[in-house]
Every structure is written in C-alpha cells, then in structure tokens.
Specification:
The complex is a heterodimer. Chain A is α+β, with helices and mostly antiparallel strands. Helices cover 32% and strands 26% of the residues of chain A. Chain A has two domains: 118 residues, 2-Layer Sandwich (Uridine Diphospho-n-acetylenolpyruvylglucosamine Reductase, domain 3), CATH 3.30.465; 111 residues, CO dehydrogenase flavoprotein, C-terminal domain (Enolase-like, domain 1). Chain A is built from ten helices and 13 strands. The chains are: A alpha+beta, B alpha+beta. The structure holds flavin-adenine dinucleotide (FAD).
C-alpha cells in the first residue's frame, strides 16, 4: 500500500471498490485484498472492553452476532439494511466507513455508539473517533498507505438503546435520501445522554451534537424528541440532487430523528 | 381470474402448456446477443457527446488509430446515406437520415450521449481506451430540455430548417401560421360545438399536467454483431423486436439492397418498443467493412439510458365539462410531447387513445411534437397512450368528484361502444370497453371496504390501445413422427412462440407440445412485421392458422388417397381424419404423417397474413394505496388490473402481460424519471438512481382477463401486450388523493412531491379556514 501511495486501494468486500474502479473514480495500479488479515476479521465482545469489529467483517456476520443485536441494535439495523443478501455476504462496516460516503448507512450508527476507528500505517498505529474520520465525500483521515484495521465500540451503558432509520423511496436497493442513527441512555425517567448522527445531509456524515446534548436531562417524551428533531434539522447542510431536494432532506431529518429517537427510547427501556 | 362468454370452446387455445423456450431460458442455455462470438471478431465502442447541444467543428481520429490493437474508426462521414428517406417501422414512420444521424452525429450533437465516433479493436478495453484518444472540437450551443423552453420565442433550434407541419383533422391546415421552430408538428382535431358545450355544462374542470421521460428499462442492453463480407453480403446478429426492420434500416443507411442484408435474431431480453430503431448496427457494419472482421458492440447501461429509448416527457392541459347528471359536454385537450432530438413523439396516439374510452362529441384536441436536447424517443408499450391517459383519467376523476358521482358510474355513463366515433372520426369496432368498466364496478375489490387505517385510499383509471395488424409469415413442416415444425419471423419477447404454436395446434387437432416453433432469420421466412403493437399472437397467429389450414387440406388429400375416396369424403373431427364412406376408417395425424412418403412426400405449407382488424384493447386498474404523510412514501396495498384479451390464447402469458404493464405503470407513476441537471446531463443513468420498482415494492397484481372476442381473428384474439401500462398512473394518483386529500399534477409522484402537495393542501386549508372566520 505504502509503495503505491494514492495509486493503491484496499479491497474488503469490494462492493464499493469494484464499482468505483469500473466508473474510473479511482485509477489505480494496485488493489490489496485485506480480507485475509487476521485482525481485519476479528469480531469480539466483552463486557469490559466492548466490541472490536475487524474492518473486513462482512455485514451478515454483524447482524448474525448475538452480542451486536442485543447490545448495539443500531449497528444491527445498519448492517441488515445495507444492500441485499448478496451484498451483505461481502460488504462490511469497515468498507462502509473507509469509503466515507456521506450516505453510508453504518457511519451514523458508529458515531451514535461512540465508535473509534483503529488505523495502522507505515508510521504506526492511531485511533480516531468515527465522527472525525470522514473529511469530505469519499475522503477520510486515512493517509496514503494507511489501512483501517478495526473499529472499537465501548460497552453499552445500562438502559441504552440505539436505532438507525433511513428513508429511501423504494423498499430496498437504494441510497439513503436521509439516514439518522441515534443512541439514548436513560436514567430513570429522564434521558442521561443521547447521540444523534445524520447521513446524506452534508459532505460527510454529521454528528448533531447540539441536538443530542439538548436531550440530556429531558424526559423521554414525544415532546422532547420533537424538539431535538428540530435541533437536528439545524445541523443538516444538504444539497439538492436527483435523490432529493434540500427542503425534502431537512424535513426528513426531522421526521427520522423523531422516529429513531422514539425507537431508541423504547429499546432503552427494554434494555438491561 | 378469467371471465368467459358463452361460445365455442377450444381444445388448445385457452390452456396453459409449458412454453417451448422455457427450459433453455431458465437453464441459461438460450443464446442472447451478448453470447455471439465469431472467429476474428473485433469489439466496437462508441465515443459520445459530453454536451447536450454542440456543433462538431472537427474530429481527429489519428491518435486512436495509433494505439496497438485499434483496427478502425468511423464517424458520420463514413455512413453512405445522404438524403431523407421515410420508411414504415412498426408503429410509426421513420426518417432514415435522422435514424442514421442518431447512430452517428453529423454536424451537430443534439443530446448528451449522442454518438460521435466508433472504434473497433481487438478487445473491448483497447476500444474503450482509444475513445479517449479521439479529439473532437465542439462549439457548444445553448440547449432546451423541455417543451415549454423549446417553444419560447428565440429558443435555440435543434434543426435550423425545421418548419412546423400543421395538420387539422388529418389534413394539412393552411390557415395555421407556421415558421421555423422546434415544434415539428401540430395536429388538431375539432368537432361539435365546444362553445355551446361549455354553456351546457353544470361543472367544468380545467387542469394542467407535467410528466418526465421514462425508459423502457429492458434488462438486456443493446447489442449487435455485424459481418460485412467482401462480396457485399452483410450478416447481423442482434437483439431486436423487428428483424426485417433492422434489415430495412441497415440497407437504407448503408445504401445496399435489402437482399444483401441478413438479420439473425438472437433471444431478446426485453424491448417494450425500444428495440425497433437501430443504434449500433450502422457503425458496426462500417467498422466491419473497413476491417474485414465481424464487429461486436454492446452498450453499457449508462449508454442505454443516455442514448436509447426513452418515451416522451410532456406538458398537457385538459378542460372538460359535464351536465348535472354526468354526461360529458365539452372536451378540450392540449398535449405537448418531447420528441427528443428528432421529430417523432407518440403525441398523436396520446391524443387519440386517451379519448377513446369515452363518447366525446364536442372537442378540440391539439397534439404538439417538439424536439428537445434529449435522446430521441422510441416506442414504449402503447406509445403515447399512458401519458394522455394520465391527464384524462386524472381530470375525469376530479370531474366525477365534483359531480358527487362514483368514478366508475361516471365512466360507464360516458362509455364509448361499438360504432362510437373517435376524435379522428373513425368509428370504433367491436370493443370490450363497457365490459371492462362493468367488471371493475362489480369486482369484489371495488366493492370491498378500504383497508383499515389512516391515509389509505382507492383509485381507478382506464386505458386504451388500438393494437396493430400488419404482415406476418409462417411455415409449417410436418415431421414423420406427426409433430410439426413451425417457423415464423416473430422474435419471441412475451411467450409468443407458444401462443402462436397453440393456434396451429388448435387447427390441426394436435397438442401444443407437438408443434415445434422456431424464430427464423430474414433469409429463412417471409416478411414479418415487428414484435410490437401487441400484434404477434394476433397476426403471426393468423399466419400460422392459415398455414395449418393448408397442412390440414393436404393431409385430408393424403387420407383420401389412402382410402381411395375423394377429399370431400374425409371428415376432420377432434384430430381424426375420418372416411365418411366407411366411418370405421379413421387415422390420427401421427398415423398419416408416418405414411407421408408413401402418399406423395413430406407435407409442408407456408402462409402470409396481413390482417387489419387487430381488435382494440381496453384495460383498467383498481389500486389501494397507503401514504406515509410525513415521508410521502406510497405503499401499494392491493392492485387489480383488468384487460379485454378477446380470447386469452395462453392465459398465463396474458396475465404476465397484464402484470408487466401494471408494474411498468407503477414505476412510471411513483419514481421513474429522466432527471436532468441544469447543464443538460442525465444525472441518474444507472439502475441505482433510475429507481424502477423492485419486487419488494410490489404487491401481487391480480390480473382479470375479460374476453370479448375480436371478430377479426378466428379464435377471437386481441393484442394484449400494451394496454396494461395505460391506467396505473392516474389510478394511483386518484388513490393518493383519497388517501391524503392532495391532488398530484406531476409524474413521477415521488415522496418529495407528495410531502409538498400535502403541505400545500394544508396551507390552503388553513387560509380557507381563516377566510371563513
Ligand atoms: C447493490 C449494492 C447495494 C448497496 N447498498 C448499500 C446500502 O444500502 N447502504 C450503504 O451504505 N451502502 C450500500 N452499498 C455500498 C457498499 O456495499 C457499502 O458501502 C459497503 O459497506 C462497502 O463495504 P465493502 O467491504 O464492500 O467495501 P470495499 O468496496 O471493499 O471498500 C470500500 C472503500 O473503502 C476502501 N477500503 C476498504 N477496506 C479498507 C481498509 N481496511 N482500509 C482502508 N481502506 C479500505 C476501499 O479501497 C474502497 O475505496 C451498496 C453497494 C451495492 C453494490
């Protein structure tokens, strides 16, 4: 990788890369298959360390994992709606993150769950919070020669729920017009903390910190959720294109933030 | 569900045998255009315009020719055709000069994706690379993307010398002032007394509609392989709906006699009207001529979207009035259709078809064909009719609502029947319009309560397609085992091999399985028209029936010879040839065939038919939708599609056509569109962003076959392939209104536009409320 610099790309599931090579988004001399690197295939959970998710683990392993569906339902949501079954046997969360698409369906969940990206390169290893990972459409903090090795997600707090919801005009096989990933931690009858992240409404996935922070200490009611949704709309900086207009997208941020928060609150109440 | 009138039953027609080509297709053995591989074959690729409108100043191909592996480059200069030449192609006339220019742009490119040059090389990758080495200098011109911009005074002209052709009631209209314009023709039909009609109206509704171009969306991209031999013989292996049409177009563009061109049809992966015009053949032929090698060309999906199909976008206005008891008084319709880069939108058919379900006495209907900087439109399932039907069926729904009438009662009150004069003045033949409407009205779906829950609504719409006849040929060869080989020239898109074979089997009193159908090339069968216009099962069916009658006549003569009686003494009954003089003497076809060599040799027959009474088809849809008012997403809860098939030769394939038409209409209604950016580029030229419905977006579509026999066919068949696409857009739109209170006037009715319409409706509601206080 380091040898070829910008003329090399890593290949995980290849479900983005092969398409990108074909349309000449990247013109490369070398494609490096990372699927056979042991660390890239790690999928482990412990109550003390949380989740370590290797960058080449395909989606089906994610949504079939009992720990993930129980403790990180938002990530489960993302993994199970990326592509269809064929795509999910190849495509992974790591590829989704490394690809750094504003519309990526897994990144909002990673941000909402407080994940960090573990990176290795010629200069050694480093870790970056996922909300700082993407720097523009298809661009990330990864330097030439660097690889995303894995993602770490802290163990869930008590009474935590998470949800990812996206809007697409069809029922499958589409790119999110808007996606919203949230996590909510309850403390008795109030919200202890909440994180809200948005897809497809800016050049990168957006961490809507103000909307999330606003919920701290509020009652987990429809009313609070509606207000947080309004705050999330302010964080959105969408464009108009063939997939949706600015107005439609801002409107949908409100709708989906409300719906995903309500779902996450329900999940938090059911969580141990 | 099938409804059958009381009339003679058939033994084979109306049953559901397994299709002859089924096994090959489901096992992947059937050979499509992309499967053609020939010794020494080269691969061609097309360089396409990045601009929606530009003058070509120069093309320098020298760089490409220097690349190792590149064998030849062609441009429009290489195409022999020089002057205009009109030919009849399927459902429309076409100017071959323009078709040639569409295949390789001459002095101007007229849309983004317009072909400019083509390269042949030893591999597709080299050919693709060579495209980058061709240097084209363009003078970029202003462009127009819709009919309204194209009609503005001072708009850039695509064809600088084009003058509007003004037509009134089918004849040139000298009263109309015309000049140079992007409007290629303006056709108008007037009748009755419209002014009086408005005075007689209790209610008048006047509305305006906009629709976007949509693509046929066949799975298989355009593909061709052409070999031009030094002796002048040209062979084309292609995926087309119309082999003889490809021969005709290729011969005209290449300026060779038609007899020198042989077109071999490969299996076809869908067409829906989009595989009638040639796109790749002229370039492939010239590349083959230059190199002496066969040249194969395959489009990418992006090329298919950018440079083939689609059907027209439109702007339409309708004004319609009715008396208090619901009789239509006046009918004013204005349709302006995008033709794409060259004249020839289906706007006239849109005008005629959308009026055809109704008795319309006082009318003024105008149809404008307008060129814009988008790909040249091609036929698409009932060309024009679905677009017109969207305006008409939507406006009539509002009219019925204002009258407080049930939408089907309103339609039945105004239903056209046999003898009703259309806006063209031509009377309708025997049709099933009222039968279809009555079936809708009485169907359990129509009578059932709406599914429970908020934001649920039901809508209906009608559709009409006239269907075409035209010439078809068929040959039958009796085999010694009693089976019959059936050769036709009709490419099989929708199960017509079996539907045609069944008609021959019916005549001969044998099983459909005993007829072995083959689709032949243009050297091996008599002239046969397009697989399109819903004509194949009907017209090629009649050709096969005629050939079968001839076989039967010969077999009767053989039986007579065997028993030493006269042919009149032989009775044919239930597949048996019976000696009337000695009724215990009877033989089956199998037995007769086994003795063929002793009674005069093999029995063969060929026939050509040119039937006219194609038998128009009416269709309808009832649809229940649920709308998410916050996101604007429409879910289809229940869909019932009705269609008069005359007689369903093979009900499964008729049902398949009804369902297929419904699905394409549903896609057109909800999400499909050519989305052009302001710089004139189609932004969604991929399956991902074109958003055709997937199986998960569709409920089971319940087909209802109605059978009002067509007197123009021995078994009563009507064409069934097209009308199913006409009703869905308005039906869904009318359902959305009942679910949300919002009326939609644009296609597609995508989620964003529905949220907007609901918002506008609410805002209007508030101001109304405020005004009342
Ligand atoms: C039919 C289809 C449907 C799809 N549906 C969805 C969807 O619903 N939602 C969605 O978000 N996406 C969707 N996608 C896009 C894609 O499947 C996802 O983004 C997927 O998560 C990518 O994972 P992958 O393992 O295939 O990545 P790859 O294609 O292997 O890689 C993606 C990018 O990241 C780089 N990369 C991969 N691994 C590393 C690494 N370890 N270190 C550094 N760089 C790396 C690659 O070079 C490439 O540029 C779809 C794609 C297809 C073809």
């Amino acid at each position: 990788m380091a040898e070829k610099g910008a003329k090399a790309r890593a290949l995980a599931g290849g479900t983005d890369l092969l398409v990108q090579l074909r349309v000449k988004r990247y013109i490369v001399d070398r494609v490096v298959d990372v699927k056979h690197i042991a660390e890239m295939n790690e999928l482990s959970y412990s109550d003390s360390k949380g989740l370590v998710l290797g960058a080449a683990v395909p989606c089906y392993r994610v949504y079939e994992d009992k720990h993930i569906s129980a403790k990180y339902p938002g990530l489960y949501d993302s993994a199970s709606l990326i592509g269809g079954i064929q795509i999910q046997t190849r495509a992974g969360i790591g590829g989704n993150l490394a690809n750094a698409a504003p519309s990526a369906d897994a990144i909002p969940s990673l941000i909402a769950l407080g994940a960090t990206a573990n990176i290795a390169g010629p200069k050694g290893k480093r870790s970056v919070p996922v909300e700082h990972f993407c720097t523009g459409p298809g661009k990330s903090v990864l330097q030439d020669g660097e690889l995303l090795v894995s993602m770490s997600i802290p163990p869930p707090q008590a009474k935590m729920g998470s949800t990812y919801i996206r809007f697409i005009p069809r029922n499958e096989m589409d790119i999110a017009v808007v996606g919203v990933g949230v996590s909510v931690v309850l403390n008795g009858n109030s919200i202890k903390s909440a994180r809200i992240a948005l897809a497809s409404v800016g050049p990168t996935p957006i961490f809507a910190t103000e909307a999330g922070n606003w919920l701290t200490g509020k009652a987990p009611t429809e009313d609070s959720v509606m207000q947080a949704a309004e705050a999330a709309k302010k964080a959105a900086k969408p464009i108009t294109d063939m997939r949706g207009t600015i107005e439609q997208r801002i409107h949908l941020v409100g709708v989906l933030t409300k719906r995903s928060l309500l779902s996450a609150i329900t999940r938090a109440k059911e969580a141990r | 569900m099938t409804t059958t009138e009381n009339r003679p039953q058939f033994k084979v027609v109306g049953t559901r045998p397994v299709r002859h080509d089924g096994l090959e297709k489901v096992t992947g053995k059937a050979k499509y255009g992309a499967d053609v591989i020939l010794p020494g074959m080269l691969y061609g690729k097309v360089l396409r315009s990045p601009h929606p409108h530009a003058r070509i100043k120069s093309i320098d191909t020298s760089g490409a020719l220097k690349i190792p592996g590149v064998k030849a480059v062609v441009t429009a200069k290489d195409l022999p055709i020089q002057s205009d030449k009109m030919v009849e192609l399927g459902e429309a006339h076409a100017n071959m000069k323009q078709i040639a220019e569409n295949c390789l742009a001459n002095d101007k490119v007229l849309y983004k994706g317009h072909a400019v040059a083509a390269v042949a090389a030893t591999s597709p990758h080299i050919a693709e690379e060579a495209l980058d080495a061709i240097k084209v200098v363009y003078e970029v011109l202003p462009f127009v993307l819709n009919v309204d911009d194209a009609m503005k005074p001072g708009a850039t002209l695509l064809h600088e010398n084009m003058v509007t052709r003004a037509v009134l009631g089918g004849k040139p209209d000298p009263a109309k002032q015309v000049g140079k314009s992007n409007v290629s023709s303006e056709m108008r039909w007037v009748g009755g007394n419209l002014e009086q009609a408005w005075k007689d109206s209790h209610v008048i509704v006047e509305r305006e509609y906009f629709t976007k171009p949509v693509h046929q969306g066949y799975i298989e991209p355009h593909v061709t392989t052409v070999n031009w031999n030094p002796d002048g013989k040209i062979t084309v292996w292609t995926s087309t709906q119309h082999t003889f049409g490809v021969r005709q177009q290729a011969a005209a563009i290449l300026q060779v006699p038609e007899g020198m061109v042989k077109v071999i049809p490969m299996e076809i992966g869908g067409g829906f009207g989009g595989k009638i015009n040639v796109y790749l053949e002229p370039a492939a032929a010239m590349l083959s001529k230059k190199t002496g090698h066969p040249v194969k060309m395959v489009m990418t999906r992006k090329e298919v979207f950018e440079a083939s199909g689609p059907t027209s976008g439109s702007h339409m206005k309708m004004k319609v009035g009715a008396t208090k008891d619901g009789k239509i008084t006046g009918w004013q319709l204005w349709l302006a259709f995008e033709a794409g880069a060259y004249p020839g939108s289906p706007v006239a058919m849109g005008a005629m078809c959308s009026s055809a379900p109704y008795i319309v006495e006082n009318f003024d209907v105008s149809a404008l064909d307008i060129v814009v900087n988008k790909p040249k439109v091609a036929a698409y399932r009932a060309p024009g009719s679905p677009i017109g039907a969207f305006a008409v069926e939507s406006t009539l729904d509002e009219l019925a609502e204002k009258l407080g009438m049930d939408p089907m009662d309103f339609r039945l009150k105004n239903a056209a029947k046999e003898g009703t004069r259309q806006i063209t003045g031509a009377p309708l033949g025997k049709i099933g319009n009222i039968e279809v409407m009555t079936q809708v009205k009485n169907h359990p779906h129509y009578k059932s309560p709406l599914p429970v829950g908020p934001n649920v609504g039901r809508g209906v719409g009608m559709g009409y397609w006239f269907n075409i006849g035209m010439q078809s040929s068929a040959a039958l060869n009796v085999n010694p085992d009693g089976s019959v080989s059936l050769v036709t020239g009709s490419v099989d898109i929708g199960g017509t091999r079996v539907a045609v074979a069944m008609q021959a089997a019916e005549i001969l009193g044998i099983r459909a399985e005993d007829v072995i159908p083959t689709v032949a090339d243009t050297d091996s069968i008599g002239w046969t028209g397009v697989t399109g216009g819903s004509r194949t099962a009907f017209a090629t069916g009649i050709a096969a029936i005629n050939a079968a009658e001839e076989v039967k006549k010969q077999l009767i003569a053989r039986a007579a010879l065997m028993w030493e009686v006269k042919p009149e003494d032989i009775e044919f009954k239930d597949g048996l040839y019976i000696n009337k003089k000695s009724p215990k003497d009877s033989v089956t076809m199998k037995q007769l065939a086994a003795k063929m060599m002793m009674t005069g040799g093999y029995v063969t027959a060929s026939a050509t038919a040119n039937p006219r009474m194609a038998g128009a088809a009416y269709g309808a849809m009832i649809v229940d939708v649920k709308v998410d008012p916050e996101t604007g997403k429409v879910d289809l809860l229940r869909v019932t599609a009705f269609q008069d098939a005359g007689k369903a030769a093979h009900p499964s394939y008729v049902e398949g056509q009804i369902q297929g038409g419904a699905v394409q209409g549903i896609g057109w209604a909800l999400n499909e569109e050519y989305f052009h950016t302001t710089d004139g580029v189609m932004a969604n030229s991929s399956w991902l962003d074109y958003r055709m419905p997937t199986s998960l977006d569709l409920p089971m579509i319940d087909p209802v076959i109605i059978e009002v026999p067509n007197p123009g066919h021995p078994f009563g068949l009507r064409g069934v392939g097209e009308v199913g696409i006409c009703a869905p857009m308005a039906a869904i739109r009318n359902a959305i209104f009942r679910a949300t209170g919002a009326r939609m006037y644009h296609l597609p009715m995508n989620p964003g536009s529905i949220v907007e319409a609901i918002g506008a409706k609410k805002a209007a509601g508030h101001t109304n409320g405020a005004a009342k206080k």
